[in-house]
């Protein structure tokens, strides 16, 4: 009975994970795993393993694809073989979760019970239920360079800005609590659409791709900075310096 309960729990967890992944084509349904070739997540959409969340690098942690679900995973998390029906029941490299689901076997390492930290929310899952999400650039202190990434304000955590390196990453690399910040406009120059978040001596400068996207972010951040969490509340109530 314990084995049955564990398998059912893993099945439900896997359904949620597969459903939450956004790719160019619909993700496989759980019952299709191993029976139909998956749509692979593109390498350039992730910067870390979609299972263990460790960053990829060119030497010690390279990218691999699970042949069952299509996730981009590291060698350690894909060091398993399972027979896949769509490939003539030949053994294929799969991730740990697919291995357990397809074979019913257990493994010594089990991260299922690990609680998700504040940064361990998948970008695709959060973006699908967000107040606003897009690519932005967070400039460094001299304003000449900085980090480009995927920025999200989730519906279920509307007072926090999550910053991902890529739109399919399974963990944010940092977050900024927005409550109490001032949103400042900056003059457009050299086709750069700039705005700032400022609180005391802490200042963040962002660059959007278009002026329209910049205005949308300023409005969303101003609402969060004012503590407005209900979409029905007045949108003009917020510390936004134009």
Automatic annotation (TrEMBL):
GO biological process, one term: filopodium assembly
InterPro entries noted in UniProt: FGD1-4_PH2 (IPR035941), FYVE_RhoGEF_PH (IPR051092), PH-like_dom_sf (IPR011993), PH_domain (IPR001849), Znf_FYVE (IPR000306), Znf_FYVE-rel (IPR017455), Znf_FYVE_PHD (IPR011011), Znf_RING/FYVE/PHD (IPR013083)
One MF annotation (Gene Ontology) recorded for this entry: guanyl-nucleotide exchange factor activity
A GO cellular component annotation in the UniProt record: cytoplasm
Keyword Transmembrane applies: no
Keyword GTP-binding among record annotations: no
Start and end residues of each PH domain: 129-226
Domain spans labelled FYVE-type: 43-103
Cellular localization per UniProt: Cytoplasm, Cytoskeleton
Native source organism of the sequence: Erithacus rubecula (European robin)
PROSITE patterns: PH_DOMAIN, ZF_FYVE
Xref: PANTHER family: FACIOGENITAL DYSPLASIA PROTEIN, FYVE, RHOGEF AND PH DOMAIN-CONTAINING PROTEIN 2
Name of this protein: FGD2 protein
Entry keyword set: Cytoplasm, Cytoskeleton, Guanine-nucleotide releasing factor, Metal-binding, Phosphoprotein, Repeat, Zinc, Zinc-finger
Pfam families from the UniProt entry: FYVE (PF01363), PH (PF00169)
């Amino acid at each position: 009975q314990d084995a049955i309960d564990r398998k059912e729990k893993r099945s439900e967890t896997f359904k949620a994970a597969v459903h939450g992944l956004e790719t160019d084509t619909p993700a496989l349904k759980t019952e299709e795993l191993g029976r139909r070739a998956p749509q692979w997540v593109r390498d350039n959409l992730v910067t870390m393993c979609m299972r263990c969340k460790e960053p990829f690098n060119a030497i010690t942690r390279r990218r691999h694809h699970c042949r069952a679900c299509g996730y981009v995973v590291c060698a350690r998390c894909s060091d398993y073989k399972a027979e896949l029906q769509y490939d003539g029941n030949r053994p294929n490299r799969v991730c740990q979760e697919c291995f357990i689901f397809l074979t019913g076997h257990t493994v010594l390492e089990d991260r299922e019970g690990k609680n998700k930290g504040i940064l361990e929310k998948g970008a695709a899952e959060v973006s699908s239920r967000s107040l606003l999400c897009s690519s932005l650039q967070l400039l460094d202190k001299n304003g000449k360079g900085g980090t480009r990434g995927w920025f999200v304000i989730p519906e279920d955590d509307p007072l926090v800005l999550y910053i991902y390196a890529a739109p399919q990453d399974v963990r944010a690399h940092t977050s900024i609590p927005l409550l109490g910040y001032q949103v400042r406009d900056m003059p457009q120059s050299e086709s750069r659409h700039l705005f700032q978040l400022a609180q005391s001596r802490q200042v963040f400068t962002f660059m959007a791709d278009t002026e329209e996207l910049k205005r949308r972010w300023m409005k969303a951040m101003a609402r969060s900075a004012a503590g407005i969490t209900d979409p029905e509340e007045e949108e003009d109530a917020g510390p936004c310096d134009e």
